Amino acid sequence: MISQQAILDVFNFRHACKTFDPGRKIADADFRFILETGRLSPSSFGYEPWRFLVIQDQALRDKLLTVTWGAKGQFPTASHVVAILVRGEDMRAGSEYTERFMREVKHFPEEVIARRNAFYKGFQDSDFRLQEPRALFDWSCRQAYIALANMMTAAAMIGIDSCPIEGFSQEGADRILGEAGLLEDGHFRLAVMVAFGYRVDPQPAKTRQALEVVTRWA
After folding, report:
1. Domain of 176?
2. Long-range pairs of 201-209 with CB within 8 A, sequence gap ≥ 24
3. Which strands form 161-165's sheet, in the order they lie side by side?
4. How many domains is the chain partitioned into structurally?
5. Residue of 59, 62, 156, 217 with fewest CB within 10 Å of its CB?
6. Which residues of the chain are under the pLDDT cut of 70?
7. CA 179 → CA 16, 159, 182, 214, distances in Å?
8. What is the domain-level CATH number for residue 159?
9. What is the pLDDT of residues 84-97, one digit of tens each?
10. Cα–Cα distance for residue pair 156/22, rounded to 1 Å
11. Which residues, listed in sequence order, are joined to residue 215 by a DSSP beta bridge?
């Protein structure tokens, strides 16, 4: 098992890297490992609302840069950029996507699917009130951030830097990705982006509030 101190060292190593070494590329096996930790991440009801879009085309990065103020140093220098896309209406109870998922991925029998659909609909309608399209999209985004965190932590564990990016125009980024045919006929929207590579500048001191300040016991 990994020691507690080794895990804390990883968290202290990880920071939002603003500029990467453009001459260093992440090995294919290492990047596949990072993606695999995203794939294995938990999601609500296990429905995996995400798609990991790896953007290696510099022309597409340049287009996105026109609507992404938070990646001026990252997009031109990162070894890899991932746009985490999420489903919206596909995540509704009884949708074609969730029905197919239960049958083809989960391999649930029909009686389980019927019970699960009823429970899932109640959760969406009553517990979390996800009737509005924006509420459903935001719910999918919250799940995407679990995969985002896992990928950044996994990258840090093997000495690879990262930077989460949400400094962008959502409408503008969706338009550019849609025009490139990458949103699968509107089934996906952009939740967040993340850049990976190797730092060129020294890591700044990590500043956080004290544990006693951010923790409450009840």
Report:
1. 4-214
2. 201/18, 201/19, 203/13, 203/15, 204/15, 206/12, 206/15
3. 50-54, 80-87, 188-197, 161-165
4. 1
5. 217
6. none
7. 29, 35, 8, 43
8. 3.40.109.10
9. 999 999 999 999 99
10. 18
11. none
